[in-house]
């Protein structure tokens, strides 16, 4: 045996004591040392009394402000008092501690954030509303000033959409003009004329692909303007939304159909008729990936691809709904109606309105920014409100007037920019303080290179959330599945209508002459009937509660005629 | 008027040269990371699936023996060396990483019943059916030298097993009686008897090094103390135990492999009932060996499969089998806690990974972090039905599958019968007996 290649590994010497115990011993030793020191201190009591030592201030730990902790907290946690066994209680306690620790750590990382958010502050006697885009542009640095620009275009009312990282922009004109470009460097990716009417545009998960809802069908183009797909199953689409974590292109059509197309596998996940007529107000809730539709009856309905019924319906206004938008944390929903109302709703609890406004004109467009600023568009005016969700705002934060009617607008993610597309072009406005200043490059990265984009695409595909998980509460997957009382009762009720299972009857082989086919058939019938009876008996035993709930009809009494009649 | 707009200079956000790594900026604000639960769930599901993809536990086989492998011993100081004995009296020394036999010789007339390394690793001792105890030098003899034992002891009685003391130069053999030997002496220094015909296995405790246990043919497991004159206690079970293994981390715990398809973990302080019953095998369990961490053990069975159990779990976490592997005679968990070595009836010694989907070789820090993350996710979502189904699924050979379903029907039948008996007899007449108390007959002091 070659001695040089052999690894010496002396197990007998290492494990004189199990690891756990050795650590424990060390801990004990430390503890003992501490005790000894304490005794020494007690001996020198007099000295301590004589010296006026100031209290050790530096050792006091820094406590995080509660708001910061709340921002990162994952909720209250498990109610331990209902856990009966000691070992499980300990386990859960430990888990809860870990979660709390993680939340605290992430709260502490706030000090490492490099950027500050933008702001616009008025002096005494001024209001921020009076500042025009020109004054703002003049008083900011050149790079920021370059973010304010105007494109004068001629092909009819435009629609626009930013990518998720806020770097690229696609615009589509009603008369067929489609262009995609990097709006910060103003580098054009492609510009085409699709020779058809364009109703909506949307980027897919990367900036190299975008979908265009044209006259009949939805087309998917790449960033060179080459037609990649024509999705004929998406017919007469009026609005589109892309759900980036699910890779779903969701559309609503003029014929009342809702559809979800999985762009990673090219399959239509779900498509059905909402039976609510023409659909033209669509937005997604970025927190739970549900679609919010606004209807002419003043109702906002929320949809997932899993059920053909809406998950929730909210009667928001008494007039047709003009626009809906949900903020990125899924906390607030703003709706506007044709009777000049604007309401803010708590969309997590499906409650509200949190705030109610009566506007001078009915708002045709709404958009939330990352910092919960709300842009409201009426006719050719766009107004931005700052804290309209938490308090009743009296005056807009900013206002801008266009020469042409607005068709839609979006806040650019991670920038202080509002991109407004109008009937005659596209305008990028500066709205200081509207964007999130600190990016997370592992989530969305405005500065990503080609290789980074490819890597991120693969990662995102691996983490693709299944469409089955689209529900009103997205955290439900991490919670304990406790069947509600209603579910239990309904499951029991269903038992009433169960058919008895079929008995498979294999006759025993009998000697020749003992029992013929007639006897065999008889036996089979007897056994099957017996099984049926047993099954019915068994279901009856399960169902005493269900039966109890049935109200027994009393025999009719003559005096019953004087009782109040049941309303039907 | 004071105004500030977000401006990010690309110099700060982009790497300076192509050879730098990309800059990473983190913002842990939950608003920027939506669908946390759903994405974690997806990742957990992927991790479980990847585990299945990478689960290739079989590493290789060592062939060379001309008869079934009867015993295997690990080198106490070298991970690469293993010695094995066969039913034809041959002993082979193996180099595991090279997968070669480095030395072979006929050691005994008849079966080699046991082989064990001395703690220093300089020599190994074998016992055989020819009633001899032979000590062999661990070094390969020089060219021209014959394979000769360093020392040969003639025992008066049959020898069936051997175990060495953890530190000192004392070893114990079993057969008709249990005998203690010192390496330097040719006479047994002590012998123990407790009215049984044969003892077929013996094992020294690794922590309380003076105690040892032996399995006897009267279905009992006997505990001994080296410092005492007689055996301490024994526990008699319903069927015979084939092998006993001490937990290397807990002095008072041992596990025995039983003929009734189960393994039993006992606490020596209370032998009346086992602490845990480990079920899953569908044939007599022939061998058991603990992992050096003491948290898991591996068992080989007559049903041609190897199973890995967590020491405090009743069911196995893993099953290994191949088409060609026959009845197991021996399984060993290597001292680096990474591999399992199995010897079986069809003359082969096989090397397996202890964790089926583990990546061998060094891991880069990011790789290790990713593996840890997926491990945590798997634990978090372990009880989700989809995750559970995938992680629990094992393909088992047909005969095991059929035997499992047969055993299941037998068990349900017995349960049903017992229940019927309980219904039709006086209350309290047919008591509920916990599974742990069913298999032990009595403890004898």
Automatic annotation (TrEMBL), chain A:
UniProt cross-references to PROSITE patterns, sorted A to Z: WD_REPEATS_1 (PS00678), WD_REPEATS_2 (PS50082)
Organism of provenance: Rhynchophorus ferrugineus
Record domain BING4 C-terminal: where: 396-474
Annotated localization: Nucleus, Nucleolus
Predominant location category: nucleus
First and last residues of every WD repeat: 314-348
Cellular component per GO, a single term: 90S preribosome
Start and end residues of each stretch annotated as Disordered: 17-37
Lineage: Eukaryota, Metazoa, Ecdysozoa, Arthropoda, Hexapoda
Name by which UniProt lists this protein: BING4 C-terminal domain-containing protein
Domain of life: Eukaryota
Any one GO biological process: maturation of SSU-rRNA from tricistronic rRNA transcript (SSU-rRNA, 5.8S rRNA, LSU-rRNA)
Keywords: Nucleus, Repeat, rRNA processing, WD repeat
UniProtKB/TrEMBL annotation, chain B:
A cellular component annotation (GO) from this entry: small-subunit processome
Segments forming domain Sof1-like protein: 354-440
Nucleus as UniProt keyword: yes
Subcellular locations according to the entry: Nucleus, Nucleolus
InterPro entries attached to this UniProt entry: Sof1, WD40/YVTN_repeat-like_dom_sf, WD40_PAC1, WD40_repeat_CS, WD40_repeat_dom_sf, WD40_rpt, WD_repeat_DCAF13/WDSOF1
Superkingdom: Eukaryota
Any single biological process term in GO: maturation of SSU-rRNA from tricistronic rRNA transcript (SSU-rRNA, 5.8S rRNA, LSU-rRNA)
Alphabetical UniProt keywords: Nucleus, Repeat, Ribonucleoprotein, WD repeat
Coiled coil spans: none
Main location: nucleus
Transmembrane segments: none
WD repeats, residue ranges: 62-104, 105-137, 278-319, 321-362
Ranges for region Disordered: 413-445
Compositional bias of kind Basic and acidic residues: 434-445
Gene3D superfamilies referenced in this protein's UniProt entry, alphabetically: YVTN repeat-like/Quinoprotein amine dehydrogenase
A Pfam family the protein falls into: Sof1
UniProt family annotation: Belongs to the WD repeat DCAF13/WDSOF1 family.
Name this protein carries in UniProt: DDB1- and CUL4-associated factor 13
């Amino acid at each position: 045996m070659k001695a040089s290649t052999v690894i010496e590994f002396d197990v007998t010497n290492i494990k004189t004591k199990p690891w756990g115990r050795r650590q424990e011993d060390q801990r004990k030793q430390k503890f003992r040392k501490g005790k000894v020191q304490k005794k020494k201190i007690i001996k020198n009591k007099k000295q301590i009394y004589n010296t006026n030592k100031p209290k050790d201030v530096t050792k006091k730990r820094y406590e995080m402000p509660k708001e910061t902790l709340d921002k990162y907290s994952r909720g209250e946690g498990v109610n331990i008092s209902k856990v009966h066994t000691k070992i499980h209680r300990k386990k859960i306690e430990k888990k809860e501690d870990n979660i709390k620790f993680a939340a605290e750590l992430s709260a502490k990382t706030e000090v490492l954030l490099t950027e500050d958010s933008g702001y616009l502050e008025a002096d005494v006697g001024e209001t921020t509303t009076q500042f025009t885009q020109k004054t703002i542009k003049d008083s900011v640095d050149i790079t920021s000033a370059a973010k304010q620009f105007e494109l004068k275009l001629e092909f009819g009312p435009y629609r626009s959409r930013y990518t998720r990282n806020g770097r690229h922009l696609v615009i589509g004109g009603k008369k067929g003009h489609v262009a995609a470009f990097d709006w910060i460097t103003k580098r054009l990716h492609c510009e085409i004329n699709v020779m058809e009417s364009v109703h909506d545009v949307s980027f897919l998960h990367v900036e190299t692909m975008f979908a265009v809802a044209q006259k009949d069908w939805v087309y998917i183009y790449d960033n060179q303007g080459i037609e990649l797909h024509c999705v004929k199953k998406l017919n007469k689409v009026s609005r589109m939304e892309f759900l980036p974590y699910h890779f779903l292109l969701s559309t609503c059509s003029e014929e009342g159909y809702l559809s979800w197309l999985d762009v990673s596998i090219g399959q239509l996940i779900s498509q059905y008729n909402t039976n609510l007529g023409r659909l033209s107000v669509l937005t997604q809730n970025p927190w739970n990936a549900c679609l919010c539709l606004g209807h002419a009856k003043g109702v906002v309905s929320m949809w997932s691809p899993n059920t053909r019924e809406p998950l929730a319906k909210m009667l928001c206004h008494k007039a047709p709904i003009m626009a809906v938008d949900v903020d990125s944390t899924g906390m607030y929903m703003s709706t506007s109606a044709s009777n000049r109302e604007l309401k803010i709703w708590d969309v997590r609890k499906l409650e509200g309105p949190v705030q109610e406004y009566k506007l001078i004109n009915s708002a045709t467009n709404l958009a939330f920014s990352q910092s919960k600023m709300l842009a409201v568009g009426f006719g050719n005016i766009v107004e931005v409100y700052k804290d309209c969700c938490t308090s009743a705002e009296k005056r807009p934060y900013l206002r801008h007037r266009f020469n042409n009617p607005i068709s839609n607008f979006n806040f650019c993610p991670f920038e202080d920019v509002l991109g407004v597309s109008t009937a005659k072009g596209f305008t990028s406005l500066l709205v200081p303080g509207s964007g999130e200043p600190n990016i997370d490059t592992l989530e969305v990265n405005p500065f990503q290179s080609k290789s980074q984009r490819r890597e991120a695409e693969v990662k995102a595909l691996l983490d693709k959330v299944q469409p089955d998980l689209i529900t009103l509460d997205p955290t439900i997957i991490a919670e304990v599945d406790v069947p509600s009382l209603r579910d239990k009762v309904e499951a029991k009720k269903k038992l009433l209508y169960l058919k008895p299972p079929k008995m498979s009857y294999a006759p025993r082989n009998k000697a020749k002459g003992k029992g013929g086919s007639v006897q065999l058939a008889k036996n089979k019938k007897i056994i099957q009937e017996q099984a049926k009876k047993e099954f019915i008996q068994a279901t009856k035993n399960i169902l005493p509660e269900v039966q109890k709930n049935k109200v027994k009809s009393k025999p009719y009494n003559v005096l019953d005629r004087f009782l109040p009649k049941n309303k039907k | 008027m004071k105004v500030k707009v977000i401006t990010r200079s690309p110099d700060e956000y982009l790497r300076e040269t192509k050879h730098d790594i990309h800059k990473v900026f983190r913002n842990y604000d939950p608003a920027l990371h939506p669908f946390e639960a759903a994405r974690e769930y997806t990742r957990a599901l992927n991790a479980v699936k990847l585990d299945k993809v990478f689960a290739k536990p079989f590493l290789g086989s060592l062939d060379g023996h001309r008869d079934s492998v009867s015993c295997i011993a690990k080198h106490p100081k070298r991970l690469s060396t293993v010695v094995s004995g066969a039913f034809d009296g041959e002993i082979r020394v193996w180099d595991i990483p090279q997968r070669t036999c480095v030395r072979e010789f006929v050691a005994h007339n008849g079966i080699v019943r046991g082989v064990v390394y001395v703690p220093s690793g300089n020599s190994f001792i074998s016992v055989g059916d020819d009633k001899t105890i032979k000590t062999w030098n661990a070094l390969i003899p020089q060219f021209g030298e014959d394979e000769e034992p360093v020392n040969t002891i003639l025992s008066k009685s049959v020898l069936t097993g051997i175990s060495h003391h953890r530190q000192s130069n004392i070893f114990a053999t079993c057969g008709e009686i249990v005998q203690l030997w010192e390496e330097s002496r040719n006479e047994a220094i002590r012998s123990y008897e407790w009215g049984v015909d044969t003892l077929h296995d013996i094992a020294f405790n690794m922590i309380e090094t003076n105690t040892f246990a032996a399995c006897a043919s009267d279905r009992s497991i006997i505990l001994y103390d080296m410092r005492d004159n007689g055996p301490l206690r024994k526990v008699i079970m319903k069927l015979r135990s084939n092998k006993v293994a001490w937990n290397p981390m807990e002095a008072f715990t041992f596990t025995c492999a039983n003929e009734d398809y189960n393994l039993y973990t006992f606490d020596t302080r209370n032998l009346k009932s086992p602490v845990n019953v480990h079920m899953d095998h569908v044939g007599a369990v022939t061998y058991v060996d603990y992992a050096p961490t003491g948290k898991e053990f591996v068992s080989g069975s007559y049903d041609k499969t190897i199973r890995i159990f967590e020491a405090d779990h009743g069911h196995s976490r893993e099953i290994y089998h191949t088409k060609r592997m026959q009845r197991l005679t021996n399984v060993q968990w290597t001292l680096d806690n990474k591999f399992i070595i199995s010897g079986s009836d069809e003359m082969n010694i096989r090397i397996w990974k202890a964790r089926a989907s583990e990546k061998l070789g060094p891991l880069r820090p990011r790789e290790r972090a990713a593996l840890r993350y997926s491990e945590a996710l798997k634990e978090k979502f372990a009880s989700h039905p989809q995750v559970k189904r995938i992680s629990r699924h094992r393909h088992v050979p047909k005969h095991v599958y059929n035997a499992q379903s047969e055993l299941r029907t037998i068990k349900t039948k017995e349960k049903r019968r017992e229940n019927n008996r309980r219904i039709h007899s006086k209350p309290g007449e047919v008591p509920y007996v916990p599974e742990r108390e069913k298999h032990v007959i009595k403890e004898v002091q």
